[in-house]
Write a structure and sequence with these properties.
alpha/beta; Glutaredoxin; five-stranded mixed beta sheet; 5 strands; 32% helix
Length: 108
Amino acid sequence: MNWIILNSQSQLDSILTSNETTVIFKHSTRCPVSSMAKRSLEFDKDLPPEGAKFYYLDLIANRDISNKIAETWSIRHESPQIIIVKGKDSLYDASHSDIEMQDIIKYL
């Protein structure tokens, strides 16, 4: 999986102004459920189309960015969580055991 580390407000601003469909995975490094969700996504890493952008947010280290994501796209914070956005539009979100690559690729 080619994760793009999301750790700055400028990256979030770029996602917001982009017309590309982007996947954001909010991961708690302290949570075993979050680790299982991450492993599941990585297991199915060959399913997304080439060039799909998957951002990885360590929400323990970057709680401010996590809060900004919730506020910007009006999505309740959860962890683990997948959020698919296209610019200012939120297309899909899922958390915990509902995180499945099969569901994600429908939006890519």
